[in-house]
Amino acid sequence: MILEHAILPVMPGLEADFEAAFAEAKAIIAGMPGFIDLRLSRSVETPNEYLLLVHWESVEAHAVGFRGSPEYDRWRALLHGFYQPFPVVEHFAEVHRA
Questions:
Q1: Which one of 13, 23, 27, 33 is at 20 to 30 Å from 80 when CA atoms are compared?
Q2: Is the separation of the CB atoms in 3 and 92 below 8 Å?
Q3: Greatest C-alpha distance within the chain
Q4: 96: which residues sit within 8 A by CB, 6+ positions away?
Q5: Any idea what DSSP says for residue 78?
Q6: What is the dihedral of CA 25, 31, 32, 35, to 10 degrees?
Q7: How far is it, in rounded angstroms, from Cα 44 to Cα 64?
Q8: 36 and 56 in contact (C-beta within 8 Å)?
């Protein structure tokens, strides 16, 4: 299992619109092969920043399967206009768990 991590810097003042768009977009990603689950959290200290954590079966399920799909075009149309700057996405493999 792989964990995708992204800090999403939403342009100030657009947080409510972003959250509404994400509510629609999460159904897109949830239906993708290899998707396990996701969590979106809002920063307490920096309210226009969000932390997106998505568990995938593999990096390929995200990077090739989802990003190469027609569904990704809809995801991008819903969300990518909110970010400034564009987020960096990284993948992590678990090492320890308590």
A1: 33
A2: yes
A3: 38
A4: none
A5: H
A6: 90
A7: 33
A8: yes
Residue 27 identity (one-letter amino acid): A
pTM: 0.94
**Category of 13 on φ-ψ map: left (φ > 0), alpha (ψ -120 to 50) or beta:** left
Q: Residue 36 corresponds to which tokens in the numbers above?
A: 């396990």
Q: How far apart are CA 92 and CA 32, in angstroms?
A: 19
Q: Are 4 and 32 in contact (CB under 8 A)?
A: no
DSSP state of 10: B
CA distance 55 to 59: 10
**Token code pair at residue 83:** 């970010």
Q: What is the pLDDT of residues 41-82, one digit of tens each?
A: 999 999 999 999 999 999 999 999 999 999 999 999 999 999
